[in-house]
Design goal:
alpha/beta, Rossmann fold, Beta-Lactamase, Arc Repressor Mutant, subunit A, five-stranded parallel β-sheet, 14 helices, elongated
Length: 340
């Protein structure tokens, strides 16, 4: 991480005495050199989309009259590369909640000292830098995202508090429907049903809490009901990361009644099937019955059963359930789009 030699602070607050105090405090900080720019409110900054090359934003939370952190959210959305630290007297109702809404840190006004101010601001800048993706690894991250987008299930990466860090294409389709699982304005993943949302929180806590007793797979799974479907979404939670800062979880989300997007050509090439046999294998994988498929295709049941026997022989299976499991757990379930 690059050493910070100078720090340009953009202070947003209506209280002139706070600005004067900051100027006095920063003048007593020798390293790194600090400069304070003061604007009374965020409107001009947001409209001009410019922070005059500031390294960090110090926002007076108590002067905004903003209980929902809208100013903080707007600053983070407009200047995602800049850390925002809140200045406040209300640690209980603002400090901790501000971090959940995108602030890197908060500083208690009554406890301001030159040393504490400098340490807090530099630490916030360093954390922000650590969270940014280096330019040379960005293509690798894009490729990893492309891999996850191939999966036939939703993948949602969340922090320990359920705030979403990433989701793949399939998960995006689930969240956009807002049926069962939703992504709220603060980027928290939650279940629409209050009881199920509580259960989801307990699952996350269970996954991230060390236990002396061995946990079973069922301890990490749940169903999430939907208004527009009789079949609930299925969710499996798995812990990831180590240490307090790195803890999080991944949610694997599936729709048991949604047709699986498979390539007949891929199925045929993988298992040596004819196009007709591949079509039948795909139909069975998507839950269709033999007689329904025969009627849809205008062929006899004798023809369909004959094709099924050939599929069993070529795939070394003997039951439809075995065939479906083979296909869904094999490479055919992955989309064949190129990884850039």
């Amino acid at each position: 991480m690059n050493q910070i030699l100078a720090c340009k602070i953009l202070f947003i607050g209506r209280n002139e005495s706070d600005a004067q105090q900051l100027l006095w405090l920063t003048s007593n900080i020798k390293k790194p050199e600090m400069e304070v720019m003061h604007v009374p409110d965020s409107e001009a900054i947001l409209n001009q989309r410019s922070t005059a090359d500031a390294n960090i934003i110090l926002l007076d939370a108590d002067s905004t009259g903003d209980a929902d952190f809208e100013t903080l959210k707007a600053l983070r959305a407009t200047f995602p590369e800049l850390p925002v630290v809140l200045l406040t007297d209300d640690e209980d109702n603002i400090g901790q909640f501000a971090i959940r809404n995108g602030a890197q840190d908060y500083i208690i006004r009554s406890q301001l000292t030159a040393t504490g101010l400098g340490r807090s601001l530099i630490s916030a800048i360093e954390r922000q830098q650590g969270q940014q993706v280096p330019a040379d690894t960005a293509p690798l991250l894009e490729s990893a995202t492309a891999v996850l987008n191939r999966l036939p299930m939703g993948v949602i990466l969340v922090t320990a508090s359920s705030q979403v860090l990433f989701f793949n294409g399939k998960a995006k389709s689930f969240l956009e429907k807002k049926d069962g699982l939703v992504l709220d304005t603060n980027r928290y993943c939650r279940a629409v049903n209050p009881a199920e949302n509580k259960q989801l929180g307990e699952l996350l806590e269970n996954a991230l809490t060390p236990s002396k007793t061995e946990k079973q797979e069922g301890d990490f799974a749940m169903s999430v009901s939907r208004e527009d479907s009789d079949a609930p979404l299925t969710v499996m939670v798995a812990p990831i990361g180590t240490g307090v800062a790195g803890k999080g979880a991944v949610l694997f989300v599936s729709d048991p009644v949604e047709p699986v997007e498979l390539s007949i050509d891929a199925i045929c090439r993988l298992y040596g099937l004819t196009p007709a046999e591949g079509r039948l294998a795909l139909g069975l994988t998507n839950g269709s019955k033999l007689d329904d498929l025969a009627e849809e295709w205008g062929v006899s049941m004798h023809t369909v059963r004959s094709q099924l026997r050939q599929i069993f022989r070529k795939t070394d299976t003997s039951r439809q359930s075995e065939l479906v499991k083979l296909i869904l757990t094999g490479p055919a379930a992955l989309k064949a789009a190129p990884i850039i």
